[in-house]
Request: fold
Amino acid sequence: MDFLQTSIDGLLFGSAYALLALGFSLIFGIMKRINLAYGSSLLFGGALAVWLEPIIGWGAVGVFLVTVLGAAFAGIYVERLCFSPHLGKTGVMASMIASFAIWMQLDEISSQLLPHRTHSFAGIDIEAVSFSGIILRGDQILHFWVAVVAIGALYWTLYRTRFGLLLRASADDPDTAYLLGGKVARLGMATFGLAGVLGGIAAFLILSSDGQITPHFGLWSTFKGLIAMMLGGVGSLPGAIVGGLLLGFAEAHVTFYLGAEFRDILTFGLLLLILVLRPGGLLGEAIYRTGRLAAERI
Amino acid sequence: MFELRRITKSFGGVHVLDDISIVLKPGDRVGLSGGNGTGKSTLINIATGFLAPSSGQILLDGHSLNDQPPWKYARAGIRRSFQTSRLVPTLTVRDQFRFETCDPARRRQLVAHSALEDVLDLFPFQVPLPVLRKIEVVRALLADPRVLFLDEPSAGLSGEELSAFARFLSRNVSGDAALLIVEHRQDLMRVLVDEIVTLESHVPSVATAGKPAEAVGDA
Reply:
């Protein structure tokens, strides 16, 4: 029974990781932008929401809206400053380093917005469900369903619409997107804004589950999101979900059977093992192979 | 009507194009020839918004397109191909054709005319070069272009492949579209174009016009 309960807890918590990984996969995998400031954009959204909460006063709804809009705004800010001036493959290093600088800046702004280090974060109360002795936390069930809906919406946008096709074309080669009539600058802004919205939703769900926010949330979400994305496969949307669930599952079991101090050792060990055995991640092998062959041939 | 009026382009102190004027009317078939470094690709880059001219005007139906981004040229019906393949490497051929919101029946017809049904689910790296060239042209044609610029579309094709490609182009580029083609292969030019504009390498560069047979010395 312990194993089953731990597994379910891990998988449901992993759905929050999956949501984080989805945003990372969109930016790192689909758009091929090494945006180091993504996690701190989410922190900024959460910190801004806490700071504005007494002014707006809409409770959890206000906190949700400000977190999502703040993260989207920070995402667009990062794109304009770091990535828009460096389109194409030649600007990869410059834009990555610029995003590192913005990471530090957003972390510092968030620290100023959160002077007491730990601040309470408005939560949403959902009743836990129990059956046959197994307890399912309501907030974690919500995480799971939000992750399922988000992947569906993102998949449809990227693979079934002209906007998605142009977005994927602009990631590979801005000139190709131009010649097909794509507004590359707006595509970049829209993508970073979209990733900010996804990440803002993930940040709100995670922070409201914890009931608190600290200035370390940016770094934490970067670690968890990146690891989940790489486990599942860079650029694979189903992979982001599988990677997130696997990470949650593994962490829950290690914490239960070995203790919390072994959690990160296992996490990084698992990542290393999968990257050695399957460099493209669990579900990203086809994308990895296609990308490699395309780079060799075209 | 598309018009390049008195276009000049310099890179630093190097004059690549000097006072070039070309008018393309619907149905025109123009070849652009000249040695390496005479500015053929530069002219196409300027005509499609990828490069700004040092001076001169780019006009579509009398309206200036100067200083507009390349996507506005594309949306105005001015399409192009590059010397190297610019298919999206991570999309299947079917997806490459979904960029244009054209009538599905027309898409199917063009794909069938081009004999591309068998490669629709392949990625560009799985497709041989002559077929890649065809796919790029079909993708441009699906946009129903008013002006189509093809930059050395036959590069890398052998003799037999070249003849097949020439037949494909002459059959599928619609009568309403103006076509300007940069090409070293004069045999392809002879089949496709009505007039050849030759850019010369000395400065100032000049354009001379004549019938294909005269321009290639095959009267």
Notes: Strands of chain B lie at 2-11, 14-24, 29-33, 55-60, 63-64, 78-81, 147-151, 178-182, 195-199, 207-210. Confidence is low (pLDDT under 50) at residues 215-219 of chain B. Chain B touches chain A at residues 48-50, 69-71, 74-75, 79-80, 82, 85-91, 95, 98-101, 123-125, 139, 143 (CB under 8 Å).
